[in-house]
Specification:
Length: 111
C-alpha cells in the first residue's frame, strides 16, 4: 500500500500556494514517500463530487488532515478556515495537522 496525498484547491483562494509549500516541506522533512495529486476545483459541481469543503483541502489516503474541521461542512467553492492548537484561525492547516496525517499513514503501511 502506498501513501496518497490529495491537494485540492480553488484558484480564487489566496492561501493555497502557502499550503502547497508547507505540504512539500513536510513531505521532505518527514521522508514520507507519497503519490501527490494536485487538483484544481473550479465549479460547484466539482466541489460536490469531490466533497470539497474549501481551499486548500489536503487529504492523506482519503482522510482530511483536519477531520474534525471538515466534519459537517458543506461542499462548496470557498476558502477554508482551520484552527490552530491555541484556537486562533488560520487560512492553512497547521504543520502538526499535516505532519500527524503523514506519519500516521506511514505507520499504517509499516504494520
Amino acid at each position: 500500500m502506498s501513501i496518497k496525498v490529495d491537494f485540492l484547491y480553488w484558484p480564487e483562494c489566496p492561501s493555497h500556494p502557502e499550503a502547497w509549500t508547507l505540504l512539500q516541506r513536510l513531505l521532505d522533512e518527514t521522508g514520507v514517500a507519497a503519490e501527490v495529486t494536485r487538483r484544481v476545483i473550479e465549479t460547484e459541481a466539482e466541489a460536490e463530487t469531490t466533497r470539497f469543503v474549501g481551499s486548500p483541502t489536503i487529504r492523506v489516503n482519503g482522510r482530511d488532515v483536519d477531520p474534525r474541521g471538515a466534519e459537517g461542512m458543506a461542499s462548496r467553492l470557498t476558502c477554508r478556515l482551520y484552527f490552530r492548537e491555541d484556537g486562533r484561525p488560520s487560512a492553512v492547516p497547521t504543520e502538526t495537522m499535516i505532519r500527524n496525517a503523514l506519519t500516521q499513514a506511514q505507520a499504517q503501511i509499516k504494520e
